[in-house]
Amino acid sequence: MITVPRLSESVASIPALLALNVARFGDKPAYREKEFGIWQTRTWAQTADEIEALALGLLSLGLAVGEHVAIVGRNRPALYWSMVAVQCAGGIPVPMYQDAAPEEIEFALDHCGAVFVIAGDQEQVDKVADVHERLPGLRQVIYLDGRGLRKYDHAALTSFADVQAAGRAGRADLIETLTARTDALGPDDTCVMLYTSGTTGRPKGVVLSNRNIIETSKNSSEFDHLRPGDEILAYLPMAWVGDFIFSIGQAYWTGFCVNCPESADTMMTDLREIGPTYYFAPPRVFEAQLTSVMIRMEDAGRLKKWLFDRFMAVARRVGPALLDGKPVGMVDRLKYRLGEVLIYGPLKNTLGFSRVRVGYTAGEAIGPEIFDFYRSLGINLKQLYGQTEASVFITQQPDGEVRSDTVGVPSPGVELRIADSGEVFYRSPGVFVRYFKNDESTADTKDAEGWVATGDAGFIEKGSGHLRIIDRAKDVGKMADGRLFAPKYIENKLKFFPNILEAVVFGAGREMCSAFINIDLAAVGNWAERNNIAYGSYQELSQHPQVLTTIGEHVAEVNRSVAGDEMLSGCQIHRFLVLHKELDADDGEMTRTRKVRRGVISDKFADLIAAIYDGKPEIYTETEVTYEDGRKGKICATLKIEDAVVVPTTARVAA
Amino acid sequence: MTGSGAGPAGDAPPTVPQRGVLPDGAHITADGRTIGPTLMDMRNITLRFGGVEAIKNISFDIREGEIRAIIGPNGAGKSSMLNVISGFYVPQEGEVWFRGAKRPPMKPFQVARLGIARTFQNIALFEGMSVLDNVMTGRLTQMNAGLLAQAVWWGKAQREEVENRERVERVIDFLEIQHIRKTPVGRLPYGLKKRVELARALAAEPKLLLLDEPMAGMNVEEKEDMSRFILDVNDEFGTTIALIEHDMGVVMDLSDRVVVMDYGRKIGDGTPDEVRGNQDVIDAYLGVAHD
Hints:
- The complex is a heterodimer.
- Among the domains of chain A are: 24-185 and 224-279, Rossmann fold, CATH 3.40.50.12780; 477-643, ANL, C-terminal domain (GMP Synthetase, Chain A, domain 3, 2-Layer Sandwich).
- Helix content of chain A is 40%, strand content 22%.
- The longest helix of chain A has 22 residues, at 302-323.
- In chain A, strand 17 and strand 18 form a beta hairpin.
- Chain A is of the alpha/beta class.
- Chain A has a 5-stranded parallel β-sheet, with helices on both faces. A 5-stranded mixed β-sheet of chain A has the order 12-13-14-15-16.
- By secondary structure, chain B is α/β, with parallel strands linked by helices.
- Chain B folds into 2 domains: 27-115 and 206-291, P-loop containing nucleotide triphosphate hydrolases (Rossmann fold), CATH 3.40.50.300; 128-203, no CATH class.
- Chain B has helices at residues 78-85, 108-114, 131-137, 147-152, 156-174, 190-203, 220-237, 248-254, 272-276, 279-286; strands at 20-21, 27-28, 34-35, 38-49, 52-63, 67-71, 93-98, 101-102, 116-119, 208-212, 240-244, 257-262, 265-270.
- A 6-stranded mixed β-sheet of chain B has the order 9-10-11-6-12-13, with helices on both faces.
- In chain B, a hairpin with a 5-residue loop joins strand 1 and strand 2.
- Chain B is globular, with a radius of gyration of 20 Å.
- The relative contact order of chain B is 0.16.
- Chain A binds chain B through residues 35-38, 147-148, 150-151, 262-263, 265-266, 269, and chain B through 31-33, 165-166, 169-170, 172-174, 176, 178-179, 181, 228, 231-232, 235-236.
């Protein structure tokens, strides 16, 4: 029986934890990657060996203590090893978003003064090469996949394998330095620096210490009873704090195995092959999977469709209760068992969720129907609330207390406080050390006693003690007549409709609320196909009269549900338009984690907003778009502005 | 502007291989690739179908490691030329020399054994088979185990399949088609089918790869992808590539040297820049002004 170390004080750093894992789990799988059609496994001992070779190689390239090394690429074991190798060699790893534009990479590389970049492939090397001449501090770019790089100037370009080889060759000379640097690492030394996605302004470098990562990993692993032998699929951006905690922090603490997909396109197949036991996905992934299941069921035979509808009704009724261990009648239990054999089991297998013991979703609010769908199948899907500054965890839902409208109770070790303004504050062992080179922001966010402002408004529910988040604190405003305005709350309600991908609601300081809506091309396109509606482009489909009618119905339904809420009844949407383009991070309208940038959107589409409030029936507009390769183009369209059905409220009557 | 068998004359070969001229006309290109000696030499080829002369007395060569394009308007005889190179058509006059020896008339499988692989203008894949199985057929020339051994999958047959599968997986990885490995080819869009065909040709580890209009019917993005793959194949495996293509922009960007055909005749031969400036070529493509 393997004993997990009880005290996090006993391990001072992630490299120390790695050494411990070699002793604890030596020949157990640590990282797995599908390559050439086969899952290639590395054990903890092999992982430690690879990391050592790379760390030695970095020393041979002249990495000094405290220097930053950027890591950019898709999820691959070698890049996870890089993060730890950099720390072992005394440096600070800085993972970056792989889909970031060259200017964003340049900002971050310049801000942290990175001396090396470890890049996944040619695409990433190209981006760095674009900005290299403006970064005098950048000494070497190390690449993993040499495909297409043969002809490049190799003066400041080295392959990952060569760096490791140099490290292995120079081991005798360098090992003493490496051991000294690794042993010197303490709990307060920096473990990783992560750039926040930056909903407003420039990204900030969040410095997280070994103590932050290890304590948080320990607490959260114990909370969900994670154990060696668990499997996760690492497919979310490596620059995101959650991935660092799951794929390094918790993986090292509990000793479970991290699996990397073959490519971004094979993610769903790989998910099915691995069958993770611990799974994390943002709501949009669950949403997309549900949409695809529903679309495919429409094509299924009548018997299959009948069985599916029938047993899903049973599952919706009793599934969540069974999962929460609440009493359920004998007949229903039997029906559910039968459904498990006929429908739920095979469906979970197809989705890759057969073995999921703990599943999490976070980042955005998840639609109750979507959430309940997965719960009713018997998948233990829960919600958590967190942020980079907290090393992820602020609140999470314990087993048996899972609901779609709360984000759970404070995670172990976390204290919560709601300010008079409604803003949520927290204090925990995971609280970040500081923002890199930005003392002003650090002081604004974290006070002397260690309390951190989340920037979100919320309240703690009486009775259950669960936290409920209403909106971003700065977005919560007042309408012209003083009624409360919480755009996110309304947007989420809109986004729960499969036809609506994104929504942006305006109304602060105005007489009435209005909305921009993005249709979901997968769902609406499928609907158009089934109804023989021809369309030539996203733009044409978005302005189709029937699409506008359907969206209008959705808006009316949201208005009805909002009208029932005393506090927010003023937020009903009076007018809306369907945008002619998808909101996109490349155009700066969203963050890389797909959060809407309200300010950018209201500036960029000021003409549309003006038209809505001027009461115009339609508006002609031209919009600049950026293609994935950075080129710019322009699209123009005439957008119809629709009036929505609004429920009269008492407040309005009184006014 | 005709005839390019000899390399640029006059310069003495430098001792250290650098950009410039190597013995036997071999040289290193501006982007660092080595162009070797002549791999295939077409000498005075004439091909007739009944009374129609599809190819009229054409000579040109293909050097090891280069990307050689054959271009020309519709009906110029490009595909016929490719079929002569691949051995599918036997010309009435002229000789085909491959790796320093005259090539006798051959069956297609014998040509394949020589190390020549091709793709087709109209995709020729097994629609009902998966991508993986289709690409595996490219390895057929490398499989020697007997029928019985293959049927019971034992001994040599098993070893062979494992080796071949590994090679095929490398090609699949290289062309980034992992996500459709198990998908029947019939369900794939056109652009991906083209890529699968290239994969099958590559799986044979050819010395010379013939591509018959690899970009036909593709959109801009698919063309860009395909161009990148062709360059990468040439760069990574050192495969010599001969291709026919309509899209002038693509040809000029990709190729080291270009042969231009019109009505069965060769009207130009040289680097893309040379061809671009050739008055005959301009006339053939843009028409001649009569005033």
